[in-house]
Predict the structure.
Amino acid sequence: MNEKVIWDLRIEQVIEKLKKGKRIDGRKLDEYRPLEIKAAFSQNADGSAWVKLGATEVVCGVKFGLGEPYPDSPDEGALSVNAELLPIASPVFEVGPPNEDATELARVVDRGIREAKAIDFKKLCIEEGEKVWIVFIDIYAINDDGNLFDASSIAALTALLNARIPKLEDGEIVKKEYSGKLKLGKLPLLTTFAKISNFILLDPCLAEEKSKEGRFSVATTEDKKITAMQKGEVGAFKLKELENCIDLAFEKSAAVRKTIKESIGED
Amino acid sequence: MNEKVIWDLRIEQVIEKLKKGKRIDGRKLDEYRPLEIKAAFSQNADGSAWVKLGATEVVCGVKFGLGEPYPDSPDEGALSVNAELLPIASPVFEVGPPNEDATELARVVDRGIREAKAIDFKKLCIEEGEKVWIVFIDIYAINDDGNLFDASSIAALTALLNARIPKLEDGEIVKKEYSGKLKLGKLPLLTTFAKISNFILLDPCLAEEKSKEGRFSVATTEDKKITAMQKGEVGAFKLKELENCIDLAFEKSAAVRKTIKESIGED
Amino acid sequence: MNEKVIWDLRIEQVIEKLKKGKRIDGRKLDEYRPLEIKAAFSQNADGSAWVKLGATEVVCGVKFGLGEPYPDSPDEGALSVNAELLPIASPVFEVGPPNEDATELARVVDRGIREAKAIDFKKLCIEEGEKVWIVFIDIYAINDDGNLFDASSIAALTALLNARIPKLEDGEIVKKEYSGKLKLGKLPLLTTFAKISNFILLDPCLAEEKSKEGRFSVATTEDKKITAMQKGEVGAFKLKELENCIDLAFEKSAAVRKTIKESIGED
Amino acid sequence: MLVSKAKRPDGRKADELREIKIEAGVLNRADGSCYLEWGQNKVVVAVYGPREALPKHIQNPNKALVNYIYRMATFSVPERKNPKPGRREIEISKVCGEALESAIFVERFPNTTIDIFVEILDSNAGTRVAALTAAAVALADAGIPMRDLVSAVSVGRANGEIIVDLTKEEEDAEDAVDIPMAIMPNTQEFVLLQMDGIMSKEEWSKAIAMGQKACQQIYKLQREALRKRYLAAEKE
Amino acid sequence: MLVSKAKRPDGRKADELREIKIEAGVLNRADGSCYLEWGQNKVVVAVYGPREALPKHIQNPNKALVNYIYRMATFSVPERKNPKPGRREIEISKVCGEALESAIFVERFPNTTIDIFVEILDSNAGTRVAALTAAAVALADAGIPMRDLVSAVSVGRANGEIIVDLTKEEEDAEDAVDIPMAIMPNTQEFVLLQMDGIMSKEEWSKAIAMGQKACQQIYKLQREALRKRYLAAEKE
Amino acid sequence: MLVSKAKRPDGRKADELREIKIEAGVLNRADGSCYLEWGQNKVVVAVYGPREALPKHIQNPNKALVNYIYRMATFSVPERKNPKPGRREIEISKVCGEALESAIFVERFPNTTIDIFVEILDSNAGTRVAALTAAAVALADAGIPMRDLVSAVSVGRANGEIIVDLTKEEEDAEDAVDIPMAIMPNTQEFVLLQMDGIMSKEEWSKAIAMGQKACQQIYKLQREALRKRYLAAEKE
């Protein structure tokens, strides 16, 4: 109850300030919050990343599993992206299997990576029609202070970039030994915007998310291709607004990509 | 609430009229509502039917799948009948997995077909002990204006009658090609009755269902055999009443069978 | 509501009496309720037992199933212990999959048996790496008048002791024929205590369970080894109390073991 | 009515029931209970209620809800049953609950629920009618007012003969028909009637008549169990 | 804007829609309904509400909840679908419900829910936009006040061409891009926009422009269906 | 008490703990939180409450409910864990919640719930005691009044030696015994005690004594983490 009153005041504040061209935390409209990445934080994961975007925290782990290929792509590995909005991350998140918010998050991150052909699935074939690698990307929200989408996308890309493929012996995984790194063809990243009172804001914080009239995310690659889009939440965007978002995404994701590379010692 | 009041009035009306020997919609006690059948309405289904029985609407699709036979019948295919009471069909139906009403409906339709030996399961064996056809019959209630049992039974039989068995190549299903029609040995149909104030009514509409003190369904074949029975809902039947129902079922299902054959161009 | 009032009075009574060194049902602090065991009561089970401990009743059945061994123990069979707190057993038990209470119960019984190496899993290997016996122990609470833990442990051990291993022919189970008895290396039994007002009571009845400030169970073998422990429920134990419980468990389980042997005609 | 004299696999006559033992009031936590053995079948039933139906929105202001849950123990069948309730158990729970509700004066207990929990501990065909028979006794033991008891039996055909109380072996016959039925023994009205198999109306009528007779025997056993229970209770 | 003249597998032009039939008010139990055929796609939609949201704790005192449930019949796809809703259906339900809510005057109906149930009975690509188009008609049929209708179409690329209304065959092309979109036809604002595939911003802009044009055609068909429905209702 | 001088696989002495780092107050959305590293184990804990328990019918008018949820991330173990919680996680959640409740003044907060959520992000034996240790700190950080902190450690036997703080490698020894324990460090009372393995009472007593000593070290680290947190909070 009091919680509601506080948020109502925050929303008022967000809108008040925006009318004066200012964001509640002092950022410019097209400015990301400070980004910190800890790559490879988990030893049991084959690849991992802990991402802080402002106060928003997301962890991601990559594991390789063995499985059968899909009948219509017998020489290709597979990708499975899952996300959990842990109750740790927010007083409003609940215990239980992924809800529709977590499902949307996982699927949008998945599409960005999959459609960019970031992973060469043919290289993940072990025995055609019989055995392939399945890449599991598991994302956990640890603290939700807004824009879990971009934080998750950054965590997933970083975890993939430091992921090592397990060593096989007689068709079984050898624990703690690796045959090499996973190589990525593209580096797709999601860039997310909120619309509030006809302003378009990059990387909305929680107070801004609660004020928003629509979310728009676009996944782009380093060579300025679009690989996924998602308009979500209640609200409507004008074509001009979408076009501006796409241009900003090309520009802003480049800086994020640089931070990611630094985090894995590739700069 | 208002809904409840309206139904209470309708129930009063049903009983009032019955006492004068009349049904609420003017039908005779042993009269079916108008029946319309659209066979093979869905291209992706291997067999299908859209049934309107008065305002009650049910769709049914048949799909053939590959599976292993049961250990105790290694040379026989299998049958799986499922029903969903879609929330589309009624303001009181809920989203979710089949509840006990849907389960009963599916199992009664299943028994009628299975016990009549309508399907020759031995002909659905592909490789003994290894691979057989599984016949999936999936029933969806689209509009519930009473007697979903008979509408579902009619839809299932019609869908089976226009079902084609997929073509196999190297043990895999070839999409959109068929090896022939499924042939049925018998044409079992369910005929359902409601008991209201000691009257027995064929094909109860929704208002009659809400007034009923017991439901009785009997599946019969064209050669006057009984293949399944189900007394359901709260209420009790006298032996004489049951016997009359069986005789009526033999008679009334014959006309329905004729309409089904017309719908698939076999008359 | 009235239920609650009655239990509150019973709890008062339990504590009142304890202060005078007496238990509500007249037992000594370290005394079990009367124990009755009916071994092999179910013909379809491979082994079974019906246990009455005072008014507490538990049934247990053992079934052998065929399965694949775990990759890290290719020459060993497996054990699966499940427990259901049937709503039959208590007005507060609910329909549905095992809750956390049933899960704890099953796992504590499981650990007692497993860690004692009561079952020689190597003897349950049929074909290394391919096929092994899985021992299913299924426990059902029938009447909960307290201490389901010990009743379940007694039922599980008795059911194992009268369990017969099915006969195999061509790798399949032959119904109603057996190749021999399951032999147990140890006879582990759980002994459970409640702490109430700083008294430690053996085999708490329901009124005592409701009064308790902590439960402690210890699984012991006939050669005075400890094979499992579980402190459960809210409450704290002093080291001295735990040590006394262990000593009592060694002593009291011996008598129970004797009753079990009698029930299977081995005395 | 002619009853065949041919002997059945277990030596019974066509209209002969397996041995049935009924004991009422066997559990102390339930409001009513019954333990029943019917041949190899072993059933425990507990009844709770009428008690407040919760959550409140499921309450019916005009009558008690009757909630019948039929379950089989994993080890009660030849091959271990999955602990998760199957569609068969769900359907049986529904129609058996409806059968019993037909006999209970539910209108006397608005906003309540009468819960009937059944567990099958060993089985050999006919568990649903065994359970229904036991449940009627448990309801009476709980003091739930009923128009009449409910007595149930399965009838049908196996190996060319119309018979009562089929065993698993008979249910597996090539020509088997299984007809579980339950009646209120005083009015002879049917509250449960199902059928699996294919037969003519004439055969069906013959089977039903045998079932009606068998239900009267079962009714006698139910009353006897209740009588014993009342005598024992009086003594206490 | 130049539209390619190359013919597509089914003979359509790049900017040509498949045949679309819309019928409003087809079900008598729902408050509003619509049946739509779009090429091989067949969709039924029912709308209930605004009705009291239950359980009470989900109620929003400031607005109606919009609950959109998109499901595919098991037989509506080439290989039988698992009856359990998949993650794809859950995501589509979420974003399509949000798209429609953007057009509904939800603030007029506090504490209520508007339930929109969609079932796909046959399919060949573009089912989510077909369903959304049908749902907008069903909402209007239910008399739910809206800022504007919602018209939806999928655009994208296949075999090097920017096209509208892709078929399954086109979606399976090596270079396929699928962009489901929905707009409010009067304001041209986007309420749904998704994308699968990889393309440049220029191609995307071209596809979107074709989609905007197509939505105006679809809008016309929606209004026509509603007009027929109102005329029929008036006669009654 | 004699402690063996034999070195363990990772070079530790029998009574030597792995390195432990504790940080309190790491999350801004939770009422209390803690991040803990214990050897390879990595744990995050968030505490919410006391807050109103919902739905209302679960409320206890005499005390706060303590709801402890222990989960492992899929990637925190050598082979990817199924995301669905397993029976192990359910049992651990139950007994660890009961252990903590033994120390909390729950009677001061009727009708509320205190929610404690644990996620294991990397693991190498001893995660339940690591989590319990972190949870006690998170509870203190949330300002929940407690009789005492709770300090936890696992003791046992491997390769013939009685040791504290077993690693996975030690847990896999032929003769391994694992005894997770938690005490209230001031009263030395046990609030958690479990055991896996087979040993004599004498060995058990020796292990427990080592565990009690280790808990005092852990208690020191917990207090230190809380002290830092309070100093930092004061500065703000």
